[in-house]
Amino acid sequence: MTKQVASILGVPFTTRGFRDSVDYMVERIESGTQTHVVTANPEIVMLAREHRGFRSFVEQAYVVPDGIGIVYAAKWTNQPIYERITGVELLEALMAEADRRHWKVYLLGAHPEVISLAVEKLAERYPNACLVGYRDGYFRQDEEEQIVQEIAEKKPHLLFVALGAPRQDEWMVKYRDQLNASLMMGVGGSFDVISGKVKRAPAVWQKLHLEWFYRLVSQPSRWKRQLAIPRFVLTVLKEKWSSR
């Protein structure tokens, strides 16, 4: 299958839609090909733009457009990205595949209470998926080797890591050759949503593409992170006009 990529501020996004991306990932997992998935929103793009090391990780990954800002940027720059692929929805779609195919799944990250609740909810909803292990994100550096060894022994088809960006992707890249995981994906705050600790924006907010604003209103402490959105928009428009 040919690589289908669009570049947004130097970050290579897949141009496949949601269902095609899931099918592509399934195909890679079934063929034993390792995949590192990055769900990139404007904040991740700006991070990659400003930090060469992080950008090199992203350039080697399968990057999906997690954020309506990416879809708009593609429209402004005449690139074929038409559909956002949110991390939590992609996680759930892959869990549905794990349920059908009896795949092994390992979860890493988040607060101890959050990860326990997330595992409980996922086990209820996807009873045929094999949840082979989980670990919260509050571990010391000297515990990493033991965690990596445990994951490697389980050989999960799916490894979901919630350590926040860029740490989660740096962690996966650091240990990818030892982890024995078919597909690794950074999932940010997805465990918080799945556990029920954080509510997703109501459907009407999602349809209006205002999920980012709902999160800001619900969690005002996010305002510094949300500054990446106007910076991203201005940078995209500046590059667009300077290329004319």
In CATH's first tier, which class applies?
Alpha Beta
Helix content: 40-55%
The parts where pLDDT drops under 50 for at least 5 residues are none
Number of helices: 13
What is the domain total for the residues? 1
User: Could you spell the SSE succession in H and E letters?
Assistant: EEHEHHEHHEHEHEHEHHHHH
Neighbour order of strands in the largest sheet: 4-3-8-7-5-6
What is the percentage of strand-forming residues? 15-25%
SSE class: alpha/beta
Cα separation of the termini:
33 Å
Mean pLDDT: 90
CATH topology: Rossmann fold
How does the overall form come out from the CA principal axes?
A: globular
Radius of gyration: 18 Å
| The CATH architecture | 3-Layer(aba) Sandwich
> How many runs of DSSP E, i.e. beta strands?
8
Biggest beta-sheet profile: 6 strands, parallel
Please supply descriptive tags for the structure shown above.
53% helix; EC 2.4.1.187; two-stranded antiparallel ribbon; WecG_TagA_CpsF; single chain; alpha/beta; transferase; six-stranded parallel beta sheet; 244 residues; Rossmann fold; glycosyltransferase; N-acetylglucosaminyldiphosphoundecaprenol N-acetyl-beta-D-mannosaminyltransferase; 13 helices
Notes on the protein architecture:
By secondary structure, this protein is an alpha/beta fold. The protein contains 13 helices and eight strands. It has one domain: Rossmann fold (3-Layer(aba) Sandwich). Strand 1 and strand 2 form a beta hairpin. The model has no long low-confidence stretch (mean pLDDT 90). InterPro entries: TagA_TarA (IPR034714), WecG_TagA_CpsF (IPR004629).
